[in-house]
Design goal:
single chain, 132 residues, alpha/beta, 4-stranded mixed beta sheet, two-stranded parallel sheet, 5 helices
Length: 132
């Protein structure tokens, strides 16, 4: 099984209790009030403890109905791509989850908190480093 984590904020205790016994790490983000990028950065710090993981799959908690087939397609794409990010495209729109290759992590770690990960994705897309 692949390592799985949930980044939490002010409801850390309740979430941890609800996931008791599940094979998931509950990561408290002390900067949760700073927005999504701070939570993504907390996840990146955790991912760096997972050895030489090449990819980090990230989704939002308010996107709960992600199909297993979508995740499988995204993971399959990582096997052959040279891109720094892989994202789903449906009906002309990009969505979640997103897979970030390790080489993109430093850009996310120092991203402008006002612009978030979206600006990193846009920059990578301009460079031809995103696979849809």
């Amino acid at each position: 099984a692949l390592p799985l984590a949930v980044v939490t904020g002010p409801h850390h205790g309740a979430i941890t209790a609800a996931l008791d016994g599940a094979p998931v790490a509950c990561l408290f983000n002390p900067r949760h009030d700073e927005g999504q990028l701070a939570s993504l950065q907390r996840a990146l710090a955790w991912a760096r403890t997972m050895g030489r993981a090449e990819w980090l799959l990230v989704t939002l908690v308010d996107v709960p109905a992600v199909a297993t087939a979508t995740v499988c397609q995204l993971i399959d794409a990582t096997r052959t791509t040279t891109a720094a990010a892989v994202r789903p495209l449906y009906g002309g729109r990009h969505g979640h989850p997103v897979l970030w290759r390790r080489e993109a992590w430093p850009r996310l770690e120092c991203a402008d908190e006002r612009l978030g990960a979206r600006e990193v994705m846009r920059a990578l897309a301009r460079e031809g480093r995103v696979e849809d």
